[in-house]
Specification:
Blueprint lengths: L2 H21 L8 H4 L6 E6 L5 H13 L6 E5 L10 H10 L4 E5 L7 H11 L4 E7 L16 E5 L4 H9 L8 H6 L1 H9 L4 H11 L9 H23 L7 H13 L7 H8 L3 H13 L3 E4 L14 E4 L2 H7 L5 H13 L5 E3 L6 E3 L3 E6 L14 E5 L9 E3 L8
């Protein structure tokens, strides 16, 4: 390709950058934009499809660099540009044009991303590279050793607190778990002074996890199904070695989990239902957890072995139960919410004897409705009930929605 043609191709990328960055709104920005060290030479942002990685990156570019490509350039890695150009070609031309910060969205769509990014940061040490990718990409085991050089961040869907900001215009701070467990009365008063959280929390459980609820519930659930199908059909076959012929089995497993109480799920039953071996079920479940489709809980996280049977299995977030199942069990949905929110920054174990969950080896939680008794955690140190349908705490029985303020 002649130099003029290459220049024209670069100009096309600049135009796409300007168009995409101009379109993004910055009136509501998630707090994790502040926790990412964007000035590091190499930053990786991973997360499940649909949680908002692309929007966050574009918002940062708009706030920091404006809409025109120059010092910064945003590229989606399945762009037609890369059919006859390498990522190294792009970095060289961007560097010669005075570029300083390269943003690469969905790097998993470019086969040799890790090798070429390593070469870019070696060749141009003054250039910063920020990339996003599927939760399944293995930075630590990639073709090039990036593990010692990349700052890796994991992005989740909306918390209940973020749902209030995004969809209800209600802005409230986040709290650590320790703050929630020691100051729950004050936090409840703060929240209830600006809204009635219970009906909003019920809405969040149905339609609040993904930042694209700008349509009807039916269309929202259809988009969730599309997200699940894409992860299974495209990402798990690419990154987890799942044979395309077995993707229907994985979807059947998701549907099975959506309508069955986690107490009743066992590997033998699941294997029989799917007509595959128990070892294959365990392998699939491990991959599905990495893909953020499910949560696997064990009674002792420190002693978990590679092919160990989990003690409990949940879908990864409450909205999946409503998208994939009809009339899900509310008890399962509540527990799923607690596991999802706590697992963002805490170790969560299944508690076989006392309560439902043990967190960080310290706190014990029993989850239920407002009439839940303390019988199962009587006399247990640092134990609490997380109860639905409550706006204020009663002793150590705390409103369930409080756990939605962790991030």
């Amino acid at each position: 390709m002649c130099p003029n043609q290459s220049k024209q191709k670069m100009e096309t990328l600049f135009k796409k950058h300007r168009m995409l960055i101009t379109q993004v709104r910055t009136d509501i920005v998630r707090d994790n934009i502040k926790s990412i060290n964007w000035d590091s030479q190499l930053v990786g942002i991973r997360g499940s499809r649909g949680v908002g990685k692309t929007t966050l990156i574009r918002q940062y570019i708009k706030q920091r660099y404006g809409v025109n490509a120059g010092e910064a350039l945003y590229c989606v890695m399945d762009s037609m540009y890369f059919t006859n150009h390498t990522l190294l070609d792009l970095a060289e031309r961007f560097h010669l044009a005075g570029g300083r910060h390269l943003f690469l969205d969905e790097v998993h769509k470019y086969p040799t991303w890790s090798k070429e990014i390593k070469e870019i940061i070696d060749l141009y040490p003054e250039m910063k590279v920020t990339f996003s990718g599927s939760s399944l990409i293995q930075i630590l085991n990639a073709d090039a050793d990036l593990s010692r050089r990349v700052l890796s961040y994991k992005m989740k869907g909306l918390s209940f607190r973020e749902f209030l900001i995004f969809y209800k215009g209600i802005s409230l701070p986040s709290f650590t778990l320790e703050e929630i467990l020691s100051n729950y009365d004050e936090i409840c008063s703060q929240v209830t002074s600006v809204c009635h959280p219970q009906p909003l929390f019920e809405e969040y459980l149905r339609v609040g996890y993904y930042p694209f609820y700008d349509v009807s519930a039916e269309e929202y659930y259809s988009r969730i199904e599309n997200v699940v199908s894409f992860i299974i059909d495209q990402e798990m076959t690419q990154f987890c070695g799942v044979e395309p012929a077995y993707t229907r089995k994985l979807k059947a497993m998701m549907m099975f989990l959506a309508v069955n109480n986690p107490y009743e799920v066992n590997i033998a039953k699941l294997a029989a239902y799917l007509e595959i071996s128990k070892n294959t079920v365990l392998s699939y479940l491990s991959s599905m957890e990495r893909a953020e489709l499910v949560h696997l809980l064990y009674a002792d996280n420190k002693s978990v072995t590679k092919m160990q049977k989990p003690d409990k299995i949940y879908l990864s977030n409450p909205n999946l139960f409503y998208a994939l199942g009809n009339q899900p069990n509310i008890g399962t949905v509540r527990e799923c919410f607690v596991v999802d929110q706590l697992s963002s920054c805490h170790s969560v174990e299944y508690s076989k004897k006392e309560g439902d969950f043990r967190v960080d080896g310290t706190y014990t939680f029993e989850v239920g409705g407002k009439d839940k008794s303390f019988d199962q955690i009587a006399g247990v140190k640092d134990s609490f009930i997380l109860a639905d349908s409550m706006e204020f705490a009663v002793g150590k029985k705390l409103p369930l929605w409080l756990i939605g303020f962790l991030y």
